Amino acid sequence: MVSAGKKFREALKNNKPLIIPGAVNAYSAKLAQKAGHKALYLSGSGVAAASYGLPDLGVTSMEDVLIDAKRITSATSLPLLVDIDTGWGDSKSICKAIKEFSKAGCAALHIEDQVFDKRCGHRPNKQIVSISEMRDRLKVALDSKIDNSFFIMARTDALASEGMNGAIERCGEYLDEGADGIFLEAVTSIDQYQEFKNNFSVPLLANITEFGKTPLFTQAELNAVGVDMVLYPLTAFRAMSQSAENVYNSVIKDGTQEPLLDIMQTREELYEVLDYYNFEKELDDKLSKE
């Protein structure tokens, strides 16, 4: 049986670039798979907002993220990349996280170089740890792998405070430690990706999140400068949230949901995604034998 880590590496090898949409729950993951995607992402920010109604300020625990990760890996066969923020604490916490997410069927993760009390990567006043401390995080993570193909990516938030030169220096150190790839956060120019690839040949991830520091570069533009993975962490969630808000307001205003039917997924479409009728048939067959 091919491990989740191997699936992720194969998807990365066979897709130029690999498109990785975010899924905030199991049903979103099934929709992404139905659309033809080859990998999925679970955002720490998405878990905080969608599952707990909290901001992305490092307030959710490993267990909070792990619950959502397990639900997604149980619902789809796509390899899942998970955001573990700073690793939730000391070496023991990082070690536990690597083992637990691997056992949960996840394929990959990224760990970042912000301080423990982290902020969203596109907000001001981020603080980052020393290079040596981040290398220690990576060493623990890499040493804790229970599957050699499990993909561990280093995320750096250094661009905001140390500029491109500082980010390049850090990436070199993280790769020397053994990171499988780099997540370069809050990029402001397409040339910064090109500069990275001029220095390193390892897999590079571009975070194309909306309403942040990074322009909405197209996949063609990113592919031209050597980006290997294009991440859309909360794109579907933002659209879902706006739609839900419109629905809640409309039901109060109009007194009926009828004007909204044309923007809804139908019952039959839901059943198709869930394979409802096969589940129902199995239940009927079981009851008929009792």
Beta-strand fraction estimate: 5-15%
- Fraction of residues in helix: 40-55%
How many helices?
12
Inertia-based shape: globular
- List the quaternary state of the chains: single chain
Physical arrangement of strands within the biggest beta sheet:
1-8-7-6-5-4-3-2
Low-confidence stretches: none
Provide tags for this entry.
290 residues, eight-stranded parallel sheet, globular, alpha/beta, 12% strand
Describe the structure.
The chain is an alpha/beta fold and 290 residues long. 50% of the residues lie in helices and 12% in strands. The protein is built from 12 helices and 8 strands. It has helices at residues 4-14, 26-35, 44-52, 62-75, 91-103, 131-143, 159-177, 190-199, 219-224, 235-254, 267-274, 276-288; strands spanning 18-21, 40-42, 80-83, 108-112, 151-156, 181-184, 204-207, 229-232. The protein has an 8-stranded parallel beta sheet, with helices on both faces. α2 packs across α4. It is globular and about 65 Å long. The model has no long low-confidence stretch (mean pLDDT 95).
